[in-house]
Amino acid sequence: MTVPEKVAEANERVINIMTKARPVWTDVRPAIDAVPGMEKNLILIPGPPIEVKELPIPLKTAVCGAACHDGLAKNVDEAWEMVLRGEIKIAPSQDYNCGNAASSVMSASMPVFVVEDKTSGGAGYCVPHPGSNPRVLRWGIYGEDVEENLRFIRGDYAEVLGEAVRKSGGIDLVRILSKTAGMGDENHNRQPAASMALALELVPFLLDVQHPARDRVIKEICANDRFFLHVMMAGVEAVMQKAKEEPYSTVMVGMGGNGVEFGIQVAATGNRWYTTPAPKISGIFLKPTTTEADLLGYLGDSCVTEVWGLGGMSAIAGPVYLRMTGGTFRDAKERTEKARQVSLGEHNFAPVPWDDYRGFPVGVDIRKVVGLNILPVSHGGSALKTGGQAGAGAAELPMEVFKKAVEGVANEVKRMEGEE
Question: Average pLDDT over the chain, rounded to whole?
Answer without folding.
Answer: 97
